[in-house]
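Thread amino acids onto this structure.
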């Protein structure tokens, strides 16, 4: 059975940074399109490309599961990855589908907080993994390079949180507006019913039929 799509994609997972897609080229060229590495020069990109992990997945295979400890981020080199949220009743909702050039899971580079959703390959996928030990190695070996990446990660997280906050504010406003409309409609229906009853009491003959 198909997993229902979530109405309105969340900024926590959606690629809100670029509409560019990379389908061919070197690992360095792909990484250069990812905000976490976009400020790196050619030498620095090659240094990162030398330590990332290339992995292939079958359609339907899970990249990570909701609740797993965060270990790092992934870049989609080829294929489609669905981000799926599962509630306590085991109902699943598809939040977003990520494709070539998109990235996800970058919060795992910062701490080991549990993953907030499942990442499942919808098609055969080629992914590039960049994990916390890789980042720590870079910081130790090339302090300047490591700090550049950490700074970019902070910008990414801040942007996602800012967009998510705006989405929550808009949703709250829409819910309040809907609630007011329901209350007005309910009040109007109640008033109409009370008026009809009052009129029937005052004019009992008006309700009689011939």
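Threaded sequence (210 positions):
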């Amino acid at each position: 059975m198909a997993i229902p799509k979530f109405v309105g994609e969340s900024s926590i997972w959606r690629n809100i940074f670029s509409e560019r897609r990379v389908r061919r080229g070197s690992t360095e060229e792909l990484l250069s399109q990812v905000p976490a590495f976009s400020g790196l020069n050619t030498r620095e990109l090659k240094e990162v490309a030398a330590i990332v992990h290339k992995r292939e997945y079958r359609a339907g295979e899970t990249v990570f599961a909701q609740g797993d400890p965060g270990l790092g981020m992934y870049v989609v080199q080829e294929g489609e990855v669905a981000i799926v949220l599962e509630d306590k009743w085991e109902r699943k909702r598809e939040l977003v589908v990520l494709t070539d050039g998109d990235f996800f899971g970058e919060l795992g580079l910062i701490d080991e907080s549990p993953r907030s959703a499942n990442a499942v390959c919808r098609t055969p996928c080629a992914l590039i993994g960049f994990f916390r030990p890789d980042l720590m190695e870079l910081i130790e070996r090339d302090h300047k390079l490591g700090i550049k990446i950490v700074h970019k990660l902070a910008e990414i997280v801040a942007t996602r949180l800012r967009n998510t906050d705006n989405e929550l504010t808009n949703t709250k406003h829409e819910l309040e507006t809907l609630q007011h409309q329901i209350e007005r409609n309910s009040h109007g229906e109640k008033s109409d019913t009370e008026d009809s009853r009052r009129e029937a009491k005052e004019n009992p003959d008006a309700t009689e039929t011939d």
